[in-house]
């Protein structure tokens, strides 16, 4: 159709009619006078629309997917941020609960041993002292901490104070190869010296080479003169292996320490020694052995065969 005045007038007239029909259809609702015509048109053009839709939908779906993926990405990022915040909060709560549990155990062990302690928190591992197994704690001279004080936690012996600053102190761990502490066997008087071996069990040399020691026996600190650097009765560990004496002057034991040196957080510095040796009272209760189930087999005699029974008769 050429662009003439008549064609433009026809176009305007068709548009006006279309708007009029749309208005009538909207106002009529379900009783619209053009509803029948719309249904007829749908019947005629429906298959054509479906064919066109099948061709156009993949593109439309792709655009919609891109748009929705952007919305999902934004929502996912928001959820991830919320999840991270919740995890941080939960982790903080878990850490708080863990510290409360550690502090509770520390107070119980100090109560049983009658140790006067100053609570501290580990703020660094491995101070600037070569390759020594050390930790730094957040108490120092201003808190009454002095060199050669015993350090423990709720499980047992941690180490001894070696360096003291105004507000911090360095502790040499019992696992350090340069660490040595006098020990005493539980429920006995067998004395020895325990030395650190890094991440391996402590090595203990008993003074009595003929001492009767078995796996599972436990040790505590013997204590030092004037209670420095070690107070008596602090749990050390459990015997995991006993070397044969072999005629030596000493007996060698290997002891798994009660303390997990890689998980230190809350510790206590013994600022006041007990009035008397607590002996074994600070040791934790021994776990009850798990009973081994036994199986009883009952044999029921079988009936003799008919032929055998007749032969015996």
What does it look like?
The protein has 313 residues and is an alpha+beta fold. The protein has three helices and twelve strands. It has a six-stranded antiparallel beta barrel. A six-stranded antiparallel barrel has the order 6-7-8-11-10-9. A hairpin with an 8-residue loop joins strand 1 (116-125) and strand 2. The protein is elongated, with a radius of gyration of 42 Å. Residues 38-72 have low confidence and may be disordered.
Order of helices and strands: HHEEEEEEEEEEEEH
Radius of gyration: 42 Å
Q: What is the average of the pLDDT values?
A: 77
Strand content: 15-25%
Walk across the major sheet and give the strand order: 1-2-5-4-3-12
Function: Involved in formation and maintenance of cell shape.
Family: Belongs to the MreC family.
Pfam families: MreC
Region (Disordered): 274-313
List the helices and strands and how they pair.
Elements: H1 5-28, H2 35-113, E1 116-125, E2 134-137, E3 150-152, E4 157-164, E5 169-173, E6 180-185, E7 191-197, E8 200-206, E9 218-221, E10 235-242, E11 251-257, E12 266-272, H3 306-312
Antiparallel strand pairs: 1-2, 1-12, 2-5, 3-4, 3-12, 4-5, 6-7, 6-9, 7-8, 8-11, 9-10, 10-11
